[in-house]
Amino acid sequence: MTASPTVRRRRIARELRQLRERAGMTLDVAARQLDMSKSNLSRIENAQIGIKPRDVRAALALYAVTGADAEALIEIARGAQQRGWWQNYSDVLPEWFEFYVGLEAEAATLRTYEAESVPGLLQTEAYAREIYRRTAGEEGLERKVAARLRRQEVLRRESPVQLSVVLNEAVLLRPVGGAAVMAEQLTHMARIAQSPNVTIYVLPFMAGAHPAMSTPYVILQFPDAADASVVYLDNLTMGLALEDAGHVRGYSLVHEELCRMARDPADSVARLEAASRNFA
């Protein structure tokens, strides 16, 4: 797995904040000692901006961290300066979504609920093209589709992400791009659901009210326990990453409940196949 610079930046931010607090220093005091503004140090500690390895070394010296521990963190800082593949698509991916893709690139597990459309990791090229055409217009269309398809490599890498998807039944019935596009898309999901790392649940209308009616979500968990899990929410113009453990726990309980309410994986595949035949 290629280390994501986004995840490395989060790790450095958290470590520097914790080390400063353990050293008993306020932001003001630490910023003055490091010859930077309080606002810059705050943004570094909140992973809003990066920090150069030499500045990490200076901060670690200030917080009395030396030896192997210091060198390990400096190496992480070097990794945080690398470019992720998604940065080559910065002309068509908004910055807030680049942040999500950087997290997704290193996630070990993804748990998600979608109410209206197929999740990006499961979209066919034709379906993705139509979604972008309807939600964002023609500008940069093919570049956006290419970036979406590139994201799907997390499902096929050597240690693939474990993906758990709950789909509102409406996703299977809403025609996107016409019958042929939908038939292909549903067949693709039924096929990919046979992969050992992908589980799809269809939440039927008859299940009634459920705890995720207000919003779709993605819960990301990372292979290194030092990287805290994240709940990611977004809309057309912004994204929000919730890192508080209480938020992650709450959304995790919601996902467990949705899985219980949904058709089991085998029945869900059968429902996908039946929906595909209806569009054929």
Helical content (DSSP H or I, runs of 4+):
40-55%
Radius of gyration: 21 Å
Overall geometry comes to elongated
Number of beta strands: 6
Query: Which secondary-structure class do the elements indicate?
Result: alpha/beta
**What pattern of helices and strands is seen along the backbone?**
HHHHHHEHHEHHEEEEHH
N-C termini distance: 38 Å
Number of helices: 12
Residues in β-strands, percent: 5-15%
Question: What does the average pLDDT come to?
Answer: 95
Largest sheet: 6 strands, mixed
Structure description:
The protein is of the alpha/beta class and 280 residues long. It has helices at 5-22, 27-33, 38-45, 53-62, 67-80, 95-104, 125-136, 141-151, 170-173, 179-192, 245-261, 265-279, and strands spanning 109-114, 162-168, 198-203, 217-221, 230-234, 239-242. A six-stranded mixed β-sheet has the order 3-2-1-4-5-6, with helices on both faces. Helix 10 (179-192) packs antiparallel against helix 12. The mean pLDDT is 95.
Tags for this model:
50% helix, elongated, alpha/beta, 280 residues, 6-stranded mixed sheet, single chain, 6 strands
Short description:
This protein has helices spanning 5-22, 27-33, 38-45, 53-62, 67-80, 95-104, 125-136, 141-151, 170-173, 179-192, 245-261, 265-279; strands at residues 109-114, 162-168, 198-203, 217-221, 230-234, 239-242.
